[in-house]
Amino acid sequence: MADFTPVPTLEGDARFDAYVARPEGSPKAAIVVIQEIFGVNEGIRRKCDNWAQAGYLAVAPDLFWRLRPHIELDADVPAEMEEALGLFGKFDQDKGVRDLEAAIRFARKEIGGGKVGVVGYCLGGRLAFMSACRTDGDAFVGYYGVGIDNLIGESHAIGKPVLLHVPTADGFVSAEVQQKMHEGLKDNRHVELHDYEGLDHGFAAEMGKRRVEDAAQLADRRTADFFAAALA
């Protein structure tokens, strides 16, 4: 079962939609799936469906709702890529993290108070890291997160497990930035980083030209094992 469901903001002054995929039986935990700059598109919905098939309640909040609800863009269409980059520049990330906290609370309530993991991609990878610093989620995974180097100063607030997937040829995250991430996080016992040599941004996209099958499967297997341990 899967459909869009309204989620109240933390302030209770508005609602935004989230794609919610439910497992057949009782969920063993919940996972909040954070979109790329392309919105809650088919690829993100498929990721939620996969988590539901694995026994989790999966929730993908529509974080661009303040800009325009239900944006769905395709990374393989140049005009839509340009539109997505423009949305990234307009998006208020601090409000986005508050909406993620609202989604975490919604998910936790839906499963009766159990554990909630967070996984994000691209912009969502950055927001997953911000969520590790600022929310009460139970475990966090970031795929090719952008600009994490300028969030290192917040990392002292991380008290739950964090896993970061880092493609070494990421066109949006330079080698210098990657080095800053490794150096800045190497002494944090809660954070684990995995490099993917020669791979570019978006290698684990569920669909489209960016996907690199073997690497995507490896990263997703590591994520599944990580959540199985952290959310047990």
From TrEMBL:
One MF annotation (Gene Ontology) recorded for this entry: hydrolase activity
Annotated SUPFAM superfamilies: alpha/beta-Hydrolases (SSF53474)
Database matches in Pfam families: DLH (PF01738)
Dienelactone hydrolase domain ranges (all copies): 16-230
Record's protein name: Carboxymethylenebutenolidase
Species the sequence originates in: Sphingobium wenxiniae (strain DSM 21828 / CGMCC 1.7748 / JZ-1)
